[in-house]
Structure prediction request, 158 residues.
Amino acid sequence: MNSPEAPLLKRMNRLKENVDESLLTPAQIEALEKIIEHRKDGAQFINLHGPRDAGKTFLCWALQQKDEWEYYQALPDDPTSPAVIYDHGSPERRTTRKLRNHVSITGVATVVYVTERPANELYPRVEFRPEDSHYEMVESTWERLGIKCNKKRDLPSQ
Prediction:
């Protein structure tokens, strides 16, 4: 694989192969617990938002291992689970309204909608704003997993 995206794809595949709740940082655990709490409270939409490359997708993969969650990077046409994770969403009102309509048609009970900025009209919100210690823990985990990390490029700074 010689494309410019090859290192990223290899890294993401390695992380996905090794996803485990034990690898979550305290900031990710806190966000995960808030998501689970909102679901128990009956929230239909939960907006997880935070900076690019902070570990939201890894957190979602860990959530997927719990209960009946299904993970998607686009609106699923025919989800088979009442709990759906929709990663890489747009926070714009037009998109969130489309999401609301789609959810009512498909009968999904709970959606975790993942965005960088807070999504319009979707509540409750779980803000994921990790501190420097989070990125240090991520770097250490990557090293243990044999994933090369160029800290300045791969891990965002605060």
Q: What stands out?
A: The mean pLDDT is 87. Residues 26-40 form the longest helix (15 residues).
